[in-house]
Amino acid sequence: GSTVQTSGSTPNNFTNPVTYTVTALNASTATYVVTVTLSSSVSSMSMARAYHTATAYGTGANLGDHVLVAGGLSGGIIRPDAEIYTTSSNSWTTVASMITARSHHTATLLTNGKVLVVGGKGGDGNSTNLAEIYDPAGNTWTATGNLTDARMDHTAVLLDDGRVLVAGGTKYDGITSTTLASAEIFDPAGNSGAGSWSVTGSMHQARASHAATALANGTHKAFVAGGYDTTYVGDAEVWSGGTWTTVSNLMSYGRWAPTATLLTTGPNAGNVIVVGGFGNPGHLTIVDMYVPGSNAFTYPVPTPNDQHEFHTATVLANGKVLVAGGEHDANVVECSSGYGCVVNTMDLYDPTTGFWTAVGPMTTKREFHASALLSNGRVLITGGLAGPDSEDNATIVSSAELY
Predict the structure, then answer these.
(1) Is the omega angle on the peptide bond into residue 351 within 30 degrees of 0, that is, cis?
(2) What does pLDDT average to in each consecutive run of 10 residues of the chain (403 residues)?
């Protein structure tokens, strides 16, 4: 019957069950060990969706109090619908729809707390050059100018000066498909605060379905790697001040649909790990680490326990990196697809030790899903194509779960 308190907060990289040491407030010498199971349960979204975005928003310590999920493919239709997950109530609320239906787009949290949505595949199946901004305070969407190039499967990176760098992607007009090297900058302060677009230098290599991240705060730089043009792209580039510099050496393999994650803790803080994707050997486990100081990749880096493509990578509050879902090489035991089997595996990278640990797994095998870090340290994983087969024989789902 004693009142007790835990010796620490809920861990954000837990594997159920979780063990706490607790001390009774009325008996300072009495300690107890208790084991609890934290629920991964969360209700489903209002609709099934894949190729959508999930963007955590909020300011300061409240970042991740809410997650905006927008667009995607549902029931064979590209949708404009949006909804919000609220962390405190573990619930969903339908909000105003986007002006433009889209999938394969990007959504970026701006420094003013609004969310910039750019490009993607429009309702007609063609790439779009339209952009819009969601204002959570007013539950409104506002058009914010047009890109020079319509694009989908591009990247968007928030620079440390508050601008957004949009690079690469595919331009498709219903007849011709072109992989882009072009890049553009969105300035939220431009056009008297309504936002403005300007062209910046083009990459040396056209690429789509690549990976990108900002480099360490204060460097004013962005990093892009991999992707696909006429083959799997094996190089990487760094944007700085309007120009691109090619990384001095290639990755281990060209890779389509990898992730690039800036490490924030440990001896390699400031470096970037490029994880997963598909290349000439098939689905990849090998990890490449980019070192900005030498503008080069370093090898070898320990590998995760499973292959991942069309996965997500989320930096946790403690700096560890959670890689979730996607697909790995096809095999007749798991699925009938000749391309790949959808997985529910998750791998956790510890930047302090440099090693990976298998965690999870997810309740649902999924790829082309979206994830976001919540303010309570947990990760919300939403939608996607559910396995076991890859996208040629998979079901779009509305389910969500928590890590």
Answers:
(1) no
(2) 43 49 55 55 95 94 95 97 97 98 98 97 98 98 97 98 97 97 97 96 98 94 98 98 98 97 97 97 95 94 94 98 95 82 97 96 96 97 91 88 97
pLDDT of residue 33: 60
Is 118 within 8 Å of 100 (Cβ atoms)? Answer: no
Token code pair at residue 122 = 């429009």
Give the bridge partners for 6, in sequence order.
22
Beta bridge partners of 239: 222, 244
Pairwise CA distance, residues 157 & 178, whole Å: 22
Give the dihedral of Cα atoms 288, 369, 390, 79; nearest 10 deg: -130
Q: Residue 74 corresponds to which amino acid?
A: S
Instruction: Report the C-alpha gap between 197 and 297 in whole angstroms.
Output: 32
Q: What is the DSSP letter of 201?
A: P
DSSP per-residue letters across 28-87: TT-EEEEEE------PPPSS--BS-EEEEE-SGGGTTSEEEEE--EETTEE---EEEEET
Taking the C-alpha atoms of residue 379 and residue 362, their distance in angstroms, rounded to an integer, is 11
Whether a cis peptide bond, with omega within 30° of 0, leads into 361 is yes
